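ok so i was messing around last nite and threw this chain in just to see what happens. nothing serious, just curious
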Amino acid sequence: MKIGFVGLGAMGSGIASNIANAGYDLTVFDVDQSRVDSLVNIGAQGASSIATVARDADVLFTSLPTPSVVMAVGTGPDGLEAHLKPGAAWFDLSTNSPTVIRQLAERLKNKNVDVLDAPVSGRPQGAASGKLAIYIGGPVDIYEKYKTLLDSIGDKIIHVGAVGAGNTTKLVHNLISLVSRMVLAEGMSLGVKAGMEPLVLWGALRQGAIGRQRTFDVLADHYMQDKYDPAGFALTLAHKDFTLALDLAQELGISLQQASEAYKFYNEALARDWGNRDSRAPMSIPNERAGIVIKEDPEKIRQVLMQ
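result:
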């Protein structure tokens, strides 16, 4: 079985590395030749174009930044539609628009190519370690056929429905994450403004009803340290996912009021040129507006986490 992979960015490079390390016959392409070279060094073959990757692939993975790039890679003159062979399967790992992936699936059906959306959740560390949730949307028989291959890149492979369902699941997941962190930040800023010591407040919240579900532990690495560089998941990427979720809501004619309010913080952070900072950077804005500073020692944070 020949595997092709297009897009070796922060997520794609780790995922492709795991495919190579699992012993699969892997050919890779990226616009950055240095990324291709890194995969060649661990046993993959490098390709000079998308078309070269696609021609021989039984299974093709893409990990790309935006729906427009996925569409271009899929339908361009040197893209996947023109060069994937009949019977091939294309798993798009990108966080994509459900509408776009369904359009691509319909187009490639004419070539007898199965398109499945397979967005991943787990950040670059998870991509490198194989600790990823992967939400699969598409024909269940194709999912089952390649389940062993998928198991080489993630530890939670979940078939969630027809094509498009994978990205719907991912967008809902990220929407809830991006909105809830702003509520946590505003709550903390309220308590500290009212005179609480940040570590005392945070430690107490962790022992409450929702705190014992570890809801507040997400504050440890970035927010409690006021540390948003380097980025684990860049704000520009999070904003893209947030926008896709709101676009989907608009397509469906529903109003997401809490999300729309939280989205304003992400827009403001981008306007401040924070795009390359971690996606949690907007959480610092409520503190700034309250006139407070929360910046705790990592060792003291660790001690609270052990309680």
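not much to say yet. The chain has 15 helices and nine strands.
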